[in-house]
Amino acid sequence: MLSATCIYSEPLVKIEAIWEKGLALPLASDSHACDLLVNGEKKNMETARKKVVSEEQLKAIFKAHDINGNGHLNREELKAAFRKLGAFVPGWRAKRAIYYTDIDIDGVISEGEIDQLVVYAVECGYKLDD
Question: What is the rounded CA–CA span in Å between residue 101 and residue 118?
Fold first, then answer.
């Protein structure tokens, strides 16, 4: 068990927390999001509870969002996939994904471009709940 300090921005107070099994357990009942200092490293409590998504998981998520089953991901399908991954602005992320991974410049991500899309999403560092 590692001791961590939980720092709230509003109100500004310090609360002792316990870092156990990858979870931050505040010792106070407060619903504010907080950052944790664990061994001098700043961690966000929300992302601390999440695991990095593997390439296989990302590929499965993207393929599951091919709603019309045509083997291509359009901007709306990508937007839904990035929303599932927790993107702050999924429409913008979908547009950037097409820009960076649409090799044949046809405006959609085809089957052959999925691997590039996965590389792009890995670089973005998405995480999912356990």
Answer: 9
Side-chain-side CA neighbours of 39 within 13 Å: the count stands at: 3
Q: Which residue, 114, 104, 103, is CA-closest to 71?
A: 114
C-alpha dihedral (104, 106, 112, 118), degrees to nearest 10: 100
Phi, psi of 120, rounded to the nearest 5 degrees? -60, -45
Residues of the chain with pLDDT under 50: 1-34, 46-47
pLDDT tens digits, one per residue of 84-122:
999 999 999 999 999 999 999 999 999 999 999 999 999
Q: What gap in Å lies between CA 104 and CA 82, rounded to an integer?
A: 22
Longest C-alpha distance within the chain, in Å?
A: 54
Q: How far apart are CA 73 and CA 65, in angstroms?
A: 8
Determine the straight-line distance between the first and last CA of the chain, rounded to whole angstroms: 20
Q: Quick one: how far is CA 3 from the chain centroid?
A: 26
Helix (H) or strand (E) holding 6: strand 2-7
